[in-house]
């Protein structure tokens, strides 16, 4: 329904030279929805964002904002506002002038600008910083100014281009929570580009996982995590252990053909398989579980909350996150078990 | 432990008396050289300055009496004041013409791609490397008999401005082309993104980020025009002649300190221009 969509991408395509950066991408962002484009670098997520913002022209497909076609319009005529990776604040303008810029360009009455700027800076908790220049502010503050500058024009859709990737971890987490809070309070529509799956999971209404210009899966974060549509999505989101095995008449071997002691609840057909389990779902000393593998303890890492135990079985390497110590020493043969529901197999 | 390298010895520092003497000698030589260079650069200026305050009518050392007499004489002479006025007006005009056209051309080069771009670049830069005689003669021949609405072009200050811009514009263009390349394209995109149309973006975002470059290239244009002699000689008449031209013409008739005064005035204008850019630059530095 056009009247509930803030943004519709309809079979968008864009190639640079021979490289297809955006390939048949369709997304429908409802009003108030926060959709994340998640993918490794080169997956086309930033190119998609630049198509929406009007910095690139699509080769094919349509972009509709609030139901109206915009793909022929230049950036300055589109009702979008981008928060850039580096903030891209105007260095010769004060914070207040930066925030007021979009309002002035959109012809908002002079009398209305000052209160809106003040309100926007209040929202990002930067009241009192009006007269500062960007060079006098920290990285996190600059990104909050950028956020205010984009939000103050109340665009149909906010475009986030990896806005937190240049910040250090604690600041990233703090601003991530702040953006989430603003979205909950104000209910803006947004497309958020990131390669950080944690960010994607934490903030999004829906996550679109991209790979080589295409959307592999678009769904709620729980669904993408719990029911990945493809091996790529499974391995890109969250950590996983990969068991590369050759099955031959019920017996399992590693990639070199050496026999391994792997028992599976549901037998797999003969051939090469890649079995995946999340390290948090693997359990140590559980010969009673449906699926299990005998592997030797290789070494242990202390991660703070948990210990990460690295095992080897032939060529297969896997690691198990386990709270507290275990009664094994490196070299011991250990039973590792997991439930069938926690495993996926691709061939 | 046969396979490990012996511990590294700290490098021997030059603490011997001989080394210390060498270092001192080197420092003294360096100082002497610096003093020589400064003297070499400053002597012509200093001599002219001293001469301009000489009371006598002939340039001759040693100076017997100091006075401002020749300054009074200079500023009381309509001929010299007019020449100074001409110089400044032509320099200002050249500055405006070459800065506006040079900045716009450089911006176009930065922003657009078009066929034969590198050829156009060479064509723009070419006059900068042309001898002033060639350009001056060329312009004189081309516009010698041209009149618009019965108004003779030849001999006007406007024509000299255009001729001087042949040198100043490529210089502005070259400086600004390099400056525009330093403009952060992300803030330009941010401006478009927020609804700034290209013209607004140019004036609001691009120009302020290159303001230091514009001021300094405009200053260069001003100084080039102020100093230029050959083209002005070819293109001016008695009514429009510039200070360098008048100085040259009076060289034989008036070998007086009046010429020294004119030199000081000319050099003074250049120094003032340099001082202005320093002030501007420091102000810019404080802002960021």
TrEMBL record, chain B:
It comes from the Bacteria. The chain crosses the membrane at residues 28-53, 88-109, 121-146, 158-180, 201-224, 259-282. The keyword Cell inner membrane applies. GO terms for cellular component: plasma membrane. GO terms for biological process: transmembrane transport. SUPFAM superfamilies: MetI-like (SSF161098). Keywords: Cell inner membrane, Cell membrane, Membrane, Transmembrane, Transmembrane helix, Transport. It is a multi-pass membrane protein. CDD domains: TM_PBP2. It is found in: Cell inner membrane; Cell membrane. Coiled coil: none annotated. InterPro entries: MetI-like, MetI-like_sf. Residues 84-283 form the ABC transmembrane type-1 domain. Belongs to the binding-protein-dependent transport system permease family. This is ABC transporter permease.
């Amino acid at each position: 329904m056009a009247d509930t969509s803030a943004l519709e991408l309809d079979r968008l395509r864009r190639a640079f030279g021979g490289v297809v950066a955006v390939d048949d991408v369709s997304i429908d962002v409802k009003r108030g929805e926060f959709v994340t484009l998640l993918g490794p670098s080169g997956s086309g997520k930033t190119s998609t964002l630049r198509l929406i913002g009007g910095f690139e022209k699509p080769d094919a497909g349509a972009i509709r904002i609030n139901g109206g076609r915009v793909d022929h319009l230049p950036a300055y005529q589109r009702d979008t506002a981008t928060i850039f990776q580096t903030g891209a604040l105007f260095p010769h303008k004060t914070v207040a002038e930066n925030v007021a810029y979009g309002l002035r360009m959109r012809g908002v009455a002079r009398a209305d600008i000052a209160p809106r700027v003040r309100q926007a800076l209040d929202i990002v908790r930067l009241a009192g910083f009006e007269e500062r220049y960007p060079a006098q502010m920290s990285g996190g503050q600059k990104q909050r100014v950028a956020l205010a500058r984009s939000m103050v024009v109340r665009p149909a859709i906010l475009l986030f281009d990896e806005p937190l990737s240049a910040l250090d971890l604690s600041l990233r987490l703090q601003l991530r929570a702040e953006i989430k809070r603003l979205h909950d309070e104000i209910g803006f529509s947004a497309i958020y580009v990131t390669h950080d799956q944690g960010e994607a999971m934490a903030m999004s209404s829906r996550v679109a996982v991209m790979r080589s210009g295409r959307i592999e899966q678009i769904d709620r974060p729980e669904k993408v995590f719990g029911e990945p549509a493809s091996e790529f999505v499974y391995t890109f989101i969250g950590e996983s252990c990969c068991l590369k095995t050759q099955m031959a008449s019920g017996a399992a071997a590693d990639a070199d053909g050496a026999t391994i002691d792997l028992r599976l609840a549901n037998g797999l057909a003969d051939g090469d398989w890649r079995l995946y389990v999340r390290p948090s779902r693997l359990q140590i000393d559980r010969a009673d579980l449906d699926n299990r593998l005998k592997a030797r303890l290789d070494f242990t890492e202390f991660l703070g909350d948990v210990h990460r135990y690295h095992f080897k079985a032939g060529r297969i390497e896997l690691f198990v996150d386990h709270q507290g110590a275990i009664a094994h020493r490196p070299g011991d043969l250990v039973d590792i078990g997991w439930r069938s529901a926690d495993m996926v197999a691709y061939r | 432990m046969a396979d490990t390298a012996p511990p590294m010895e700290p490098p021997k520092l030059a603490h011997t008396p001989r080394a210390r003497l060498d270092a001192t000698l080197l420092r003294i030589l360096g100082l002497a050289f610096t003093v020589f260079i400064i003297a070499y650069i400053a002597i012509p200026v200093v001599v002219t300055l001293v001469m301009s305050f000489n009371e006598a009518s002939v340039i001759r050392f040693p100076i017997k009496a100091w006075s401002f007499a020749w300054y009074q004489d200079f500023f009381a002479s309509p001929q010299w004041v007019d020449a100074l006025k001409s110089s400044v007006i032509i320099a200002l005009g050249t500055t405006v013409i070459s800065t506006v056209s040079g900045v716009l051309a450089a911006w176009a080069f930065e922003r657009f791609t078009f066929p034969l771009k590198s050829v156009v670049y060479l064509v723009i830069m070419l006059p900068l490397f042309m001898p002033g005689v060639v350009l001056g003669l060329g312009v004189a021949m081309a516009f010698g008999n041209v009149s618009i609405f019965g108004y003779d072009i030849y001999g006007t200050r406007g024509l000299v401005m255009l001729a001087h811009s042949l040198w100043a514009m490529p210089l502005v263009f070259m400086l600004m082309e390099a400056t525009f390349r330093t403009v952060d394209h992300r803030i330009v995109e941010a401006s478009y993104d927020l609804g700034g149309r290209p013209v607004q973006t140019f004036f609001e975002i691009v120009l302020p980020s290159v303001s230091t470059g514009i001021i300094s290239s405009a200053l260069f244009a001003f100084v080039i025009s102020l100093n230029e002699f050959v083209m002005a000689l070819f293109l001016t008449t008695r009514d429009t002649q510039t200070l360098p031209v008048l100085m040259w013409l009076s060289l034989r008739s008036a070998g007086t300190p009046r010429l020294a005064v004119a030199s000081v005035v000319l050099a003074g204008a250049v120094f003032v221009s340099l001082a202005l850019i320093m002030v501007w630059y420091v102000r810019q530095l404080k802002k960021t």
